[in-house]
Amino acid sequence: MDTVFLGRFWAKVEKSDGCWEWKASKTSAGYGKIVFHGKLHQAHRISYMIKHGSIPDGMVMDHLCRNRACVNPDHLEPVTQRENLMRGVGGSAINAAKTHCKNGHELAGSNLRVNKCNGSRVCRTCLKEYKKKYEAENIEKVREWWRNKYWKNGRVRKNHSKTDGIYGA
Ligand SMILES: [Zn+2]
Ligand SMILES: [Zn+2]
């Protein structure tokens, strides 16, 4: 990593004795994000690489401090995906063991959607309901999102799920 990038990186961080807060933009899951070599990266992973050189193959970063916006490498530990799910404070640990959503739909097969960012397990049936409701209540926002998309792409792709991306899912 070159000094220009490192300067850009650390300018977005507020260091303290505890967590090092990421001050720039974050992913929908709350992790800091930054573009490096033309690709979007999670800031805490970069921070770990700055200190340790690389991340062991197949490992994900666990925030020991449970603060996703934190990029203090001393608060990060590489673990396997599974370990990370089981470790999560309440939320993801309980989530990993959940077989049904709160409305009683089975969290399995095609009804199960796993969020790649935070490993949370989502019920597709409920997600669909949620999207419908969201659209009904935020019709102007949805329309504007479509307008933006249309202008950006020149045309709207066929077979595109109508609302992908609005919720940052
Ligand atoms: Zn921290
Ligand atoms: Zn459900």
CATH topology of the domain at 3-89: Homing Intron 3 (I-Ppo) Encoded Endonuclease, Chain A
Which percent bin holds the helix content? 25-40%
State mean pLDDT (0 to 100 scale). 82
Q: How far is it from the N-terminal to the C-terminal residue, by CA?
A: 30 Å
Question: What order do the strands of the largest sheet run in, or round the barrel if closed?
Answer: 1-2
Main β-sheet: number of strands, strand sense, barrel status?
Answer: 2 strands, antiparallel
Q: Name the ligand types.
A: zinc ion
Query: What's the helix count?
Result: 6
Instruction: Identify the overall geometry.
Output: globular
Helix-strand string: HEEEEHEEHHEEHH
- Point out poorly predicted stretches: none
CATH class of the domain at 3-89: Alpha Beta
Mind explaining what this structure looks like?
The chain has 169 residues and is an alpha+beta fold. Among the domains are: 3-89, Homing Intron 3 (I-Ppo) Encoded Endonuclease, Chain A (Alpha-Beta Complex), CATH 3.90.75; 138-168, no CATH class. It has 6 helices and 8 strands. It has helices at residues 3-10, 43-52, 81-87, 91-97, 124-137, 139-153, and strands spanning 13-14, 21-22, 33-36, 39-42, 60-63, 76-79, 112-114, 121-123. The strands form 4 sheets. A two-stranded antiparallel ribbon has the order 1-2. It has a two-stranded antiparallel ribbon with strand order 3-4. Strands 5-6 form a two-stranded antiparallel ribbon. A hairpin with a 6-residue loop joins strand 7 and strand 8 (121-123). The chain binds zinc ion (2 copies). One zinc ion (ZN) is lined by residues 101, 103, 105, 123, 125-126.
